[in-house]
Design goal:
There is one protein chain. This protein has 192 residues and is mainly alpha-helical. 68% of the residues lie in helices and 3% in strands. It is built from 6 helices and 2 strands; from the N terminus they run ββαααααα. The chain has a two-stranded antiparallel sheet. α1 packs antiparallel against α2 and α4 packs antiparallel against α5. The chain is globular and about 55 Å long.
């Protein structure tokens, strides 16, 4: 039976070298997903930065899901719920990613899929780590489950509404494969 150990002052639930190696990759991928996801959300939609960081986010969330699956398998009774959240986050990201890559009309599926994925990423982080974070350790566990959605859902809805009101629905429906938006009537646009 593996006992807990400390890594950089933090208590880690297993001293198994395989667990620690997967956890290290998981932490790096999680941080990458948070940074690239936030950068994507704050970038001009349809621009090269948005597309570039969005792709990086998708691959990072994929690594987070694979490593979360491995970590949960090693400690199933304690971590099965993290596998479920990870599967839902990766599924939502895949829906959002494919909606955009397959040039589906409108962008609601893309915005909602990627937004929900990011909210679930943060939910998993706070549920697993929130009780040990300074200033948050006294909050009820329910806060860690609900706060990311309570904050994220209105932001996702705002993004959908703003996109629809911007009139960009037809303008940014396609890109040139390099992340550059193509306007209606541009001869390089592919038919839907």
């Amino acid at each position: 039976m593996n006992t807990a150990t400390r890594v950089l002052g933090e208590l880690v639930p297993s001293s198994n070298p395989a667990f620690l190696a997967v956890l290290a990759v998981h932490v790096v991928a999680g941080l990458t997903a948070v940074v690239t996801g936030a950068t994507t959300a704050l970038s001009r939609k349809g621009g090269a930065r948005h597309v570039r960081f969005g792709r990086r986010y998708y691959w990072a969330i994929g690594v987070v899901f694979v490593t979360a699956t491995a970590l949960a398998a090693m400690r199933w009774r304690q971590s099965a719920y993290l596998f479920v959240i990870g599967a839902a986050a990766f599924s939502a990201a895949t829906i959002g990613y494919l909606h955009r890559r397959r040039h589906r009309p409108g962008h609601t599926g893309h915005i909602v899929g990627m937004g929900v994925s990011f909210v679930l990423l943060l939910t998993a982080f706070y549920v697993d780590n929130g009780p040990r974070l300074p200033l948050l350790e006294h909050l009820p566990v329910l806060v860690f489950w609900l706060a990311p959605s309570a904050i994220g859902a209105p932001l996702i809805a705002r993004g959908v509404v703003r996109y629809r009101q911007s009139g960009a629905a037809g303008v940014l429906a396609h890109d040139d494969g390099e992340g550059h938006a193509l306007a209606l009537g541009d001869p390089r646009r592919r038919p839907p």
